[in-house]
Specification:
By secondary structure, the protein is of the alpha+beta class. It folds into two domains: 90 residues; 221 residues, Bira Bifunctional Protein, Domain 2 (BirA Bifunctional Protein, domain 2, 2-Layer Sandwich), CATH 3.30.930.10. The chain has twelve helices and ten strands. The relative contact order is 0.10. The structure holds phenylalanine (PHE). Phenylalanine binds next to strand 9 and strand 10.
Length: 332
Amino acid sequence: MIDDIKEYETTALESVAAAETMIQLDEAATAALGRSGPLIEAKRQLGSLPVDDRKTVGRALNEAKARVTDAIESRRQELAEVERAGQLEAERLDLTELLGAPVTGHAHAVTQAWEELEDVFVGMGFHIAEGPEVETDWHNFDALNIPPGHPARDGFDSIYVQHGDSGATLLRTHTSPVQIRTMLAQEPPIYIVAPGRVFRRDTADATHMPVFHQIEGLVVDKGISLADLAGTMEAFTERYFGAGFSSRLRPNHFPFTEPSGEFDVQRPDGSWLELGGCGMVHPNVLRAGGIDPEEWSAFAFGFGIDRLALMKFGIGDLREFFTNDIRFLRQF
Ligand code: PHE
């Protein structure tokens, strides 16, 4: 019977080694260890052996079974590795094919408008300034002559942030706080524009988004007058929009400028586009920025970039910019 066991083991190990797939291995395992296999049959016969033989044969049987089981397990691991390698090879992406392929992406329409505005103002002698999107209440309001309780605060529909004292920190509602930060950081004369993202609790519609973009302008120098403001806006209009466009200032009110104006652009067809606000910087604002209003005077302006982009590209609805539909964005 010992010989039978040896032969059983040899046959079983051979068929395990010959298995090339998991399915073949399962078949070999069932044949070697399964209920109707020779092993179970041999065990059954053990009972009819004399006691002494039963021990020796029983041990030989168990050892053979253990070696066959080990062989099955290690073959299973080998096959698993081969299968995994095959899968990796099959699913492999050859990214080198992309090398040298044309780059099809481009800047978003709003980014294009933003960068073009920067170019025009830099060409007119302005520097680019920046400020944080999360602002202190002081920079966004107080320093701009909008003290606590001022009705203009309500008009801004601010989004406050839980940080520090309640109401002390917000997402900036306009780029005007960059005026304050610039004045505090550098000595006049100052000629800057500050493009950036701003936030208001607005419901999205064709002309409003809770997140949009503005560009702020600030000029601080000796003897700056309303005529300089009007001349700058006119020069900008011609350079940005091209010949046939002109601009006008209409009286308006902002707490941080006095006098204040609305800045409109006239299209060649005669129609008007309201672009933003402007005015002579209020003495309180200059003082908040550490600048003596007796010595220096200043003008500022601020307008929306998104609406400008709408007009430039002839788009009817602001929300289109944010849908991230590649078919839409590709057109601009
Ligand atoms: N900050 C104003 C707004 O968001 C625009 C503005 C800027 C007006 C500078 C006057 C001067 O509406």
